What does this fold into?
Amino acid sequence: MTEEIIKTKEEEVIAKLDTFDELPDAPPKRRIKLSWVGKLSVAVVAFWLLIVVIGPYIAPFHEMDMDGDDSFLNAHSNEYGTFFLGTDYLGRDTLSRIMFGARNTIGISLLATLFAYLMGITLGILAAVKGGWIDMGISRINDAILALPTIMLGLIVIAALGSSIPILIGTAAVIYATSVFRIARALGQDIMVQDFVEAAKARGEGVWWIIKSEVLPNAAMPLATDFGLRLVFVVLFISSLSFLGLGVQPPASDWGSMVRENLQGLTYGSYAAIWPALAIATFTIAINLIVDDISAKSGGMLAKKMV
Amino acid sequence: MAEKLLEVKDLRISAYNDEKVEIPIVKGVSFDIYKGQVVALIGESGSGKTTISLASLSYTKPGLEFSGGEVLLNGEDVITMPPLRQREIRGANVAYLAQSAAATFNPAITINEQVTESPVLHGVMSQEEANKRAVELYHALELPDPNRIGFRYPHQVSGGQLQRLMAAMALCGKPDLMVLDEPTTALDVTTQIEVLKAFKKVIREENAAAIYVTHDLAVVAQVADHIVVLYSGEVMEQGSADEIINNPTHAYTRRLMDAVRPKPVAGMGTDVGTEHERELPAMSVENMTAGYGGIINGEPAVTILRDVSVKVENAHVVGVIGESGCGKSTLARVMAGLLPQAKGKVKLEGEELEGGIKDRKLSELQKIQFVFQMADTALNPKQVIGDILGRPLEFYHGIKGREKHAKVAEILDMVELPAEFASRYPAELSGGQKQRINMARSLAANPEVMLCDEVTSALDSIVGANVIKLLTNLRDKTGVSFVFISHDLSTVASFADEIVVLYAGRVVEQGPTDEVLEPPFHPYTRLLISSVPELRIGWLEDTMQKREMAVGIARGVEITAVGCPFYNRCPMAIEATCDVKDVPIRELKSGHQISCHLTIEELQEAEAHTQKILHGFEKVGDDKPQKPA
It folds into this structure.
């Protein structure tokens, strides 16, 4: 009796071995699940992006209207309407200026980061794939730009060329392209020595196909996580330039210059400088948290795969 | 019976997936270890052998949890003990030896510092005592220059030496128990013997107990006292080494034993049918020299291969063997055009090929396909299998759309995988499956020659045997020629029609498999054959008696420009001849060549001598009283 049981168990094992099961793998889920912090952050970023699009249409006042009873007043209302977040140093509505400013601050930063990525990735992957003199040339020029302090470089360029939004975007893009270049080149070099790239080369594939199909898909995820961080840096960079008076020029609003303009209000107990600072903080921290969450998740998946 | 050291009772370890559903990994394993005993945990990957061995250190990999049972070390349960106490026993009472010594050592710190770190940290001994103990261990492990080797850095010693130094690291604090996780799997056969011998000696001298984790039964037969056979987290069978090796009762154990390839002997070569026969060889390499660095006057800065000639007949399998560093992969890379040769010719169906990939025609590239060693890195993790296999179809043959889809399914069927795999990513496949995809990609190009670089080396014995079976079928079906590179002579012998023995970048012997595996041998071939472990207790001791072992083992491969490169490892080397004069090539039968200063007659005589000594030993062995079971 027991022997029979043992025998059937043995047969079961053999049957299992014969029916091709070197390792039972179920396809793991490819979706990234965010934690509640991540979800909240996505909501915050979505809120600001919405403001970028519809802010100027729903703002109670125009960014240039000086309708407040006085400057540096906290929340109050008069015959023109209600000033929920008070007024700034010229008696303009802070809420409206934040809503208008979102377009400048986030729009300029997004565009600048996108351009930085376009330049950085193109040159970085090119340097990694081609190597030799091309790599040497681009890398040294890049090192030279990297060696200069970003704010100083920005100040010099804007002082020379004047402050306009296209110039602001261009300057930020070039400055931040240098660090994107570094990352893209390092990633590219890592991927280029992988066996699957060598296999593609052995097959006779051209450079563009290798970049498009082998290198970029593998570099995409780390570059995407970096994109969030880089965007934050650019927001802070643009805000710092505006704070110094070289960014977006008055009377147009942006969050950085709003902080600067209203700084003196702090001594009168006005919150006019706090609100735009909070806007910058919520946007940048939310993006950081999303990036953290995504990389923690993929790290977690890696750890699970190692088991 | 000796004192019980470790008692594993009904050990259960589980993983939890995203939905918090329990997935049992280890399902109630029990075994005991007594002082001075070596217990082998044997099974395929995924059998839970490493997980169980790590449990003795009270450690689980991230994502795993102990879900039941006890692990008693000297009567103390290591699973439930407080973390501080766990820290105390790790390194002091239980030491762990990882598979790769190269990854375990810190390259920036001298060996001695790392070897003595653990006992000093645990306060078991002072730095001076530890240093003294380390030197004793270097002596015991038969390391070269034992008094000073500790002052070197890890990159300054060879792989086999580093593996032994890792044993010194584990033993330095006089642990009660050592956990050895596949310590010889990644090594050449010749290095493996050297390491096994040292491990065995030191374990006996120190009277230490050990858990030896491996998938290789032949290795287990040499070192273990007790064997635990595992499959999918359950004990299939356990017993003394003698019982398991000589009289396995469980079907799974027998299956594992079948996967141990037999000793390479003549008569293993297969008959090649005549249906694929053609006049010209599919591929040939003539008087080729290749290496790395700039080429000056036809000589590369670092010469890897020198004056190599190899012929690959149509629908034949040419096995290329040699230790690591002998230039096996370089040969395949030159043939594939990944490395242009410095001198000589590479021909495809009689027509000369250009050196580099860029200069070769698309049709030439399509006919020669390279299969990389590591399927893990050779497949793009971001492409689904369908894209990976579809690309060569589209690239070489312009097959697109629905036709491509059908063809991919056909190719998957050829490598015995279901068609649904086309939508999976490589990470969703097992090691053996990935290796099949890796070969399928080359097959998709519809090649004449496939260059397989160590395709079975990273696989378990059973999975590897399946892959070899698959390759044999493919050859019969499609008439593709194979160049099969391996450091494992028994794998090559079971599959190849011709064998090329490479040593230090030169062909020392080549010919049909049966001829090469029959005396007379080149002394290097002899060494390789003797080094293949046998599934027999006591094989290691017998082998070490042989004369070629005494000279040949424990020497690195040195590439020389003049004379015979094997000079410093050859038991029959003639001074002032072998080291300075160019080696003559001696033709035996059709196609069988041996490059040696000794004549065929002399080699034959030497072989007869070896046989005499061998049989003498076996007689001595027979006289010994049988060990009581």
